[in-house]
Design goal:
Strand content: 15-25%
Distance between the termini: 80 Å
CATH architecture of the largest domain: 3-Layer(aba) Sandwich
Strand order of the largest sheet: 15-18-19-14-13-21-22
CATH class of the largest domain: Alpha Beta
CATH superfamily of the largest domain: Aldehyde Dehydrogenase, Chain A, domain 1
Structural class: alpha/beta
Number of strands: 24
Oligomer: single chain
Shape: globular
Radius of gyration: 24 Å
């Protein structure tokens, strides 16, 4: 195999095999062909990466933030220059169509330039002291070594949300990407390297969650864990890291709903549902998994969906005409089909789909766009994250019912409402209990300059993206400078005016 076919660890500025000597295959989900291999690591590889990050932190934290930001600007420019190349790698590894892959790379570009700007905006606060001849201020300080654990569905976007703010704030990083998308991780790290990031500031360690992820969570030298993935794994990380007093940021999926009221722009709502439910083949934490529809327009919405779905070509995402690519692997394919069977057993009516697909000449993992209707809010297909091209219609009789149904799930990431009534809009904005709310738009489409994350089972209160991301990777330090020449006691020597 060529060098391009092998994904290696990157520790302290050197590319190397994991100490296990073992490799896993990197599979193209569209064709089931082997793209190459990825090294598998051990706890010792994680230990060496953390040691490298600890040594680099001592110097990197002292580099002025505007100079750290210069590296990020170069990262953004290199990403921009290689956007098409990266998008094609992404499509081959993960399966999403090229249009979406280009959009994901653009998200990383935007994040690089945005966080580069934060190099001159890592603002603290100054405030009047209650005592004379005394200054009071606060500043942001880097935390230390950060452990990043990222998923396969957005392999460069989510990695950019986490690594760029961590690095511009002065931290160093050990990154465990998903082994399903190792080449995207490698290419991103190569760009950091070419942009001039010093050795040890960013370290890449491939491997399983049970080995590499566990070692990161338990390592005493790692101060922060930032994780995107399943609720089950996130809860385990929170418990283990909490026992070690580590800071933890969790983003763990959603069960997102579009509310379609009786006065909705139906064509616009259908556009949004199709894009939200079947874009990325439903493999997004913000995917539209439920449609809460007013009973008076349910039949119309069903027919409009049935009319449009046959016009969504399924196949290899490298084909510019394809709108729905494969799911990531055979395990996901079985999981999706199992949920379809659950929906049928629960009594929901299958409107379309519900079966695997074999596009001509392809041996990948494809599932038909699937729509259930006449579901109730308590059915498993209306409560649990399916992570595939399956959407469930739930009829309601009022806005109040719709909001109640939306909120009656364990997750709280994204929600959406289609209505022309401004009163309904503001009611929904107030009462939908998700971290992201869209009005007359679908459940996807977050922009990098606003916080990304959710409530309840979606996360633990922290946010990726936007200025809020800096809160994960910085500590507040309060500083008091007394130039009175005397001992002044706060709250005691206040005196009178």
């Amino acid at each position: 195999m060529t060098e391009w076919d092998r994904a290696l660890n990157y520790i302290d500025g050197r590319w190397e095999e994991g100490s296990s000597g073992e490799f896993a295959e990197n599979i193209n989900p569209a064709t089931n062909e082997v793209l190459g291999t990825v090294t598998l690591s051990t706890t010792e590889d994680v230990n060496r990466a953390v040691r490298a990050a600890e040594a680099a932190f001592r110097k990197w934290r002292l580099v002025p933030a505007p100079r750290r930001a210069q590296v990020l600007y170069r990262v953004g420019e290199l990403l921009r220059q290689r956007k098409e190349q990266l998008a094609r790698i992404l499509t081959q590894e993960m399966g999403k169509v090229l249009e979406e892959a280009r959009g994901e790379v653009q998200e990383a570009i935007d994040m690089a330039f945005y966080m580069g700007g934060e190099g001159r905006r890592l603002f603290g606060q100054t405030t009047p002291s209650e005592l004379p001849n005394k200054m009071a201020l606060s500043v942001r300080e880097p935390v230390g070594v950060v452990g990043l654990i990222t998923p396969w569905n957005f392999p460069i976007a989510i990695a950019s949300w986490k690594s760029l703010p961590a690095i511009v704030a002065g931290n160093t990083v050990v990154w465990k990407p998903a082994t399903e998308t190792p080449f995207m991780a490698r290419e991103f790290v190569k760009i950091y390297e070419e942009a001039g990031l010093p050795p040890g500031v960013l370290n890449l360690v491939y491997g399983s969650g049970s080995v590499v992820g566990e070692a990161l969570v338990e390592h005493p030298g790692v101060q922060v864990i930032s994780f995107t993935g399943s609720n089950e794994v996130g809860r385990s990380i929170a418990a283990k890291a909490g026992a070690r007093l580590k800071r933890v940021s969790l983003e763990m999926g959603g069960k997102n709903a579009v509310i379609v009221m009786d006065d909705a722009n139906m064509s616009l709502a259908v556009d949004a549902i199709l894009w939200g439910a079947f874009g990325t083949t439903g493999q997004r934490c913000t995917a539209t998994s439920r449609v809460i529809v007013h009973r008076s327009v349910k039949a119309q919405l069903e027919q409009m969906l049935l009319d449009r779905i046959p016009g969504l070509p399924i196949g290899n995402g490298l084909d510019e005409h394809v709108r729905i690519g494969p799911v990531i692997n055979a395990v996901s394919l079985r999981r999706i089909h199992d949920y379809v069977q659950i929906g049928l057993q629960e009594g929901a009516r299958l409107l379309t789909g519900g079966h695997t697909v074999e596009p001509s000449g392809l041996r990948g993992f494809y599932y038909a766009p699937t729509v259930f209707t006449d579901a109730t809010a308590d059915m498993r297909i209306a409560q649990e994250e399916i992570f595939g091209p399956v959407v469930t219609l739930i009829p309601v009789d009022s806005l109040e019912d719709a909001i109640q149904v939306n909120n009656r799930v364990a997750f709280g990431l994204s929600s959406s409402i289609f209505t022309q009534d401004v009163n309904r809009v503001f009611t929904a904005m107030r009462d939908l209990d998700t971290g992201i709310v869209y009005v007359n738009a679908g459940t996807t489409g977050a922009e990098i300059h606003l916080p990304f994350g959710g409530t309840k089972g979606t996360g633990n209160g922290h946010r990726d993206s936007g200025q809020a991301a800096l809160d994960v990777f910085t500590e507040w330090k309060s500083i008091y400078v007394d130039f009175s020449g005397t001992l002044q006691r706060a709250q005691i020597d206040v005196g009178n005016v």
